[in-house]
Amino acid sequence: MLSAIFYLSAILLWCERTRINRTGSSIVRNHHPQLLRERQYKMLATIFALIGFMCKEQSIMVIIYLCLLEMNRINNDHRMINSKQIMGQHDQRSTTIMIRRQLQRRRSSINISENVITIGLLLATLLTAIVIRLAIMDYTLPIFNRFDNPASRATFPIKQLTFAYVGVYHFWLLLLPLRLNCDWSHSSIELINVEHNSISEWCLAIIPMMIIMSIALFMLRLAYNVLVVDAKYHMASFRWCHIDCSSLSRSSSHFRWKQLTLHGFALTFIPFIPASNLFFPAGFVIAERILYLPSVGILLLIGIGIDYIVKRWKKFTIFVRFALTTLLIVFTIKTNLRSSEWSNEHRLFRSGLDVSPRNTKLLNNLGRLYEKEMNVAYAIELYEEAIRIEPSDIRSHLNLGNALLSMNDSIGAERAYQQALKYSESELFEPSSSKTKNLPTIVHNPTISPLYHTVLVRLAELFHNDASRVRDLEQIKTKMITFNSLITNSLELSHLYNMAIVHYRQGKTIQALNYFEQVLTYDPNHEKSLLASARIIQDEDLNQYVEVAINRLTKLIQLGKGDSTVLFNLAMFAVKVGNNVEARKLFERAIDQRPTFSEAHYNLALLLVKGLDSRMIVEVENERMSNVHLAIWHLKKVLTINPKHVKSMLVLGDLYADEIGSVRISRKYYQMVIDLNDSNTLLRARHNLCVLWHKQNDLNRAIECFQYLKRDLIYSGHGHNNNIDDNNNNDERGTQSINTVDRIEMQIQILLKTKREIQRSNTMFNGTQNNCYNHHNYTNIDKIKHDRSKHLMASKLVTMCVT
C-alpha cells in the first residue's frame, strides 16, 4: 500500500508537470517561474519513485513509465498544429511542401534536448537504484528453496514454458479472482512438461505463448501509431522518432484512444516485469501481492473499454451500466468472503488447500496448528499426506518426527529424522565425473539449509538421551564438523552457533564456549555468539571467564547493539566484580531504554539495599533514606509491571520493617506473598511474619505463627533439609535463618519460656508495685529490673514504678 501511494504520486506529479503551459520565450529564459515549477515537479516525482522503491522494489518500475510519458509529451513540447489552417493560407498545389516547412520551423522553437536529458536522468536514476540494491545483496542474487519456485531449477524448455504459463496465470487471477490462495509454492502449479506428449500439456504450453505474443504485437502496434510518424497527417519533433500530433478531430479522437490504451497496457505490464522471471528467478510461483500495482492499468483499460462502448454504441449504455454495477457487487461480495478467510489461520490454510490440495507447505502449517491444539494424531496424518505428495520435502519429515517424539515414539521419530537427513544430504552432493562415478562430490558453492542442521540437532538430542547410541551421536557430530569448512558467510555461521547451543543443552559448557570461539574467529562481530557466550558465563558462574564476558558485552555496545538486555547483563557482571557504581549506571541505562524491564528495576533495588548494609554508597543519613525510598520505588514499579513478583514483596516487607519502621505495611507485603502461595517463598514469608509478631512483643501470636509454620513444614514433607531463607539472594536481611523443623521447635520453646518468665515477672511486679507505693522498697525494684533486663516491657514498668 505504501509503495503504491508513492508510485501513483510520482505519476500524478509528472502528469501535472505536463499541464504547465509555457510560452516560447520561457524556453529560452531558464529563470522563468513556469520552467522552475516544472523542474520541481520532475524532482518530486523522481524522489517519490525512489521512496516507493525503498518500500517495495517493484515500484521502481514507475521510472520506465515516466520515460514513456516523456516521449509522448503532446500538450507541452509538441503543439497541436491544425493542418486546415495552414492549407487555408497557401495554394493547394504547394500544400504538402508548406506543411512540412511550417512544421520544421515550429520544431526549431522546441527544446528537444531537454526531453533527451530528462529521459537520460530518469534512466540513470533507475540504474543507480538497481546498483544500490545489488550492493546491499553483495552483488549476488538471493538463493531460494527449490520448493519456493520449482520452475527456476527446471531445464529447457520446461522452465520457459512454465514461466510463460505462470505469467499468464497472474493476469488471469487479476481479471477473474475466483481461486485465490495465500501460498502458491511447492506443487500448487505443476511444471509443464511437453515430453509427456499429453494434449493438456501441449495446450498449456502453446496457449500462454500465443497470448503473450499477441499482447506484445498489439502493444508494438500501438506504440508505432502513437510514437512513430504517420506521414499522412503530420510531421514530428523528436530526433529519433516523430510524434503523432494529429489535426483532424476524428483522427485526433482515434489517436487519443490509442494513446490511452498504450498507457493502460504500460501500467499493467511494466510493474510486473520484476516478478515475471524474465531477468532473474523470483522467490515465488505466484504472488497475489505483486498484482496490486498492475491492477491500476487493468482498471484504466476497463474504463477505456466502457467509455469506448458507450460512445460507439450508445444504445448499449444501460446494459453497460448494469454489467458494471453487477461486476462491482460480485467483486465486493468476493472481497468480503476472502477477508473472512483471513480471520484465522485455520480458515486461511483450509481455503488454500481447497485451491491447491497438493501444497505441502499448507499441509505442514495446518498440521502445526493442530499440534499446538494437542490434536497430534490428526497432525501426523497431515504430515504423512505431505510426505506422500512430496517425499523429498525435509520440513514434512522433520515435523513428523517432532510430532512422534511428543507422543514418546522415539523409534518413529528417529525414522522420520533419518529420512529428512537422507534427502537433505542428497541436495548437498551430486554425482562426480565419469572417472569416479562411485564417489560423490560436494556441489559447487553449496548452501547448507538451516533445516539440515535442525535435523542433525534433533538426532543429536535423541541420541544423547540413549546411552547405547554413543557411536551414533559421534557420527552426527562428525557430520556437523564436516561442513565447518564450508562456513564462509554470516548465514552459515549459524550452524556453528547451533552446535554451541546443542552442547550447552547437553551440559558440555566448555565445548559450547569453544564453538562460540570458532564463530567469533570467523566473524568477531557475530552478535548472537557474543551475547550467548556472555550469558552462559554468567549463568554458569564461570568466574575465570568474567573478563571475557565483559569484553564481549562491551563490544556489542561499541557495535551499536547495546540494547537493554546487553546493558543488564553487563551490569550483573559489574556487580559480580564489585563495581557497584558502574552497575548502578548500567541498570539505569537499561531502564531508560526499556522502562518496563522488571528485572532491571529489581536488581537495581537490590543493589541499593546492598549499599545500605555495606555503607559503600551512602554515608549520610539523609542520603541513606533517599536510597531506601528509591529502592522502594523500583520494587513497587516491579509490582506494577508484574503483580506476582514475590521476591519484590519480600524485600519490600524487609525494608518497611527494618528501615522505615512500618510494621503494618511490612506485614501487608508478607501476607501478599502468603496469599499467592508460591512454594519457593511461602515459608520465608511466614517465618518473617512470625518474627514481626515477636518484634512487636506479641508472644501469643508469634508462638501461634511458628507452630503453624512447623505444621506446614511437616505436612509439606520438607523435613529437616528445608531452607526457609534463600541465602543466594541479596535481599535477605534482618532476620535469622531457621532451617529445620527442630530449630523452629527450639524457637517455639524459647518463646514459651520467655512468656512464662514474663508472666512470673508480672506477678512479682504487681506485688512489688504495691510495696513501692506503701514502703518505697527501691532495692527490690532494682533486683526485679536486673532480673528482667532482657525484657523491655518489664523494664518500662519498673521505670514507671520508680518514677
From TrEMBL:
Q: Which Enzyme Commission number(s) are on file for it?
A: 2.4.1.109
Q: In which pathway does it act?
A: Protein modification; protein glycosylation
GO MF: dolichyl-phosphate-mannose-protein mannosyltransferase activity
The membrane topology of this protein is: Multi-pass membrane protein
Provide the protein name: dolichyl-phosphate-mannose--protein mannosyltransferase
Using the UniProt record, give the first listed, main subcellular location. endoplasmic reticulum
Look up and give the organism this protein is from.
Blomia tropicalis
Q: Where in the cell is it found?
A: Endoplasmic reticulum; Membrane
Ranges that cross the membrane: 41-69, 115-136, 199-224, 260-279, 291-310, 316-333
Q: Which PROSITE patterns match?
A: TPR, TPR_REGION
Give the UniProt keywords, A-Z. Endoplasmic reticulum, Membrane, Repeat, TPR repeat, Transferase, Transmembrane, Transmembrane helix
Database matches in PANTHER family: PROTEIN O-MANNOSYL-TRANSFERASE TMTC3 (PTHR44395:SF1), PTHR44395
